[in-house]
Specification:
Layout lengths: L7 E4 L2 E6 L2 E6 L12 H12 L4 H7 L5 H8 L4 H23 L1
Antiparallel strand pairs: 1-2, 2-3
Length: about 100
Amino acid sequence: MHSCQKYVLIRPIVFIELMNGELHIMLVPVRCFTCGNLVAHKYAEYTARIKAGEDPAMVMDSLNIKRYCCRRMLISSVETVYQVIPYYEALRKRMSEIQSEVE
């Protein structure tokens, strides 16, 4: 892992980052969906170097990510946790409303 990283690898697919005093959780696929190569262990260094201003193509080349399918795995990773949480919270709230109406 890159020496100046703020990422912590908790499980093979969960990265936690402290940014501006806020905790960010990132779920990264462990392997490429197409060819099966490991990609999760390179994600932390990739994002740190991109944030530092390096060219994404050069970073992937230096990390030895040559296949387009593996490159896609890093480029297309989004913080889906933050997109799902509001729906989960709304569902939980609605379920508690229904439960209180039934009782």
